[in-house]
From TrEMBL:
Keyword Transit peptide: no
Transmembrane segment boundaries: none
CDD domains xrefs: LMWPTP (cd16343)
Record's keyword terms, sorted: Cytoplasm, Hydrolase, Protein phosphatase
Name this polypeptide is given: Low molecular weight phosphotyrosine protein phosphatase
Location(s) in or outside the cell: Cytoplasm
Enzyme class: hydrolase
EC number of the protein: 3.1.3.2, 3.1.3.48
GO molecular function: acid phosphatase activity; non-membrane spanning protein tyrosine phosphatase activity; protein tyrosine phosphatase activity
Active-site feature positions: 13, 19, 130
Signal peptide: none
Organism: Ornithorhynchus anatinus
GN (gene name): ACP1
Length: 162
C-alpha cells in the first residue's frame, strides 16, 4: 500500500453552530498538530434544519480565538450520504443520538459508527450540553470537553500512531 487509508469523522449537534463546529475545529487542530491531517476527513453537521447556512455562534468563535483554534464552517444538515461515507459520527447528547440512530437505520449499508463524543471523555462527562442559551463560560466548558474527548478519540481510532 502506497499510503495509509483515510479515516473520517463527522461531529453532530442540533444546530451545527455551537458544539459540533467547536469539536470539528478542535479535532482538525489536533490532527494538524500531529501532521496527520492528510489521513483524516473531518466535518460537522446538524440533526435539525434550524441553522442551515449560518456561521458558528459568535460566542463559540470568540472562545476558539482565545485558544488559537481556527474555525471555518457553515452549518449544514446530516445527509444520507454521511451515513455511507463517514467512519464515525460523533454527537453531543442523547437527543442527537436518537435522531442519528433513527436516520441511520433508514440507510441501507450504513457504515458509520454512531456514538456520543462524550463516551471518549476520560473524565466521564458523557453529555456535552448545548451552550446556546448559556454564557461564555458554557462555551469554554464545551471547548474543554471537546479537547479531552477528541484527544482520546484520536488515540483510540489512530492507535496512537504518529
Amino acid at each position: 500500500m502506497a499510503s495509509e487509508a483515510t479515516k473520517s469523522v463527522l461531529f453532530v449537534c442540533l444546530g451545527n453552530i455551537c458544539r459540533s463546529p467547536i469539536a470539528e475545529a478542535v479535532f482538525r487542530k489536533l490532527v494538524t498538530d500531529k501532521k496527520i491531517e492528510n489521513k483524516w476527513r473531518i466535518d460537522s453537521a446538524a440533526t435539525s434544519t434550524y441553522e442551515i447556512g449560518s456561521p458558528p455562534d459568535y460566542r463559540g468563535q470568540d472562545c476558539m480565538r482565545k485558544h488559537g483554534v481556527t474555525m471555518n464552517h457553515i452549518a449544514r444538515q446530516v445527509t444520507k450520504d454521511d451515513f455511507l461515507t463517514f467512519d464515525y459520527i460523533l454527537c453531543m447528547d442523547e437527543s442527537n443520538l436518537r435522531d442519528l440512530n433513527r436516520k441511520g437505520n433508514q440507510v441501507k449499508n450504513c457504515k458509520a459508527k454512531i456514538e456520543l463524543l462524550g463516551s471518549y471523555d476520560p473524565q466521564k462527562q458523557l453529555i456535552i450540553e448545548d451552550p446556546y442559551y448559556g454564557n461564555d463560560s458554557d462555551f469554554e466548558t464545551v471547548y474543554q470537553q471537546c479537547v479531552r474527548c477528541c484527544k482520546a478519540f484520536l488515540e483510540q481510532s489512530h492507535g496512537g500512531q504518529e
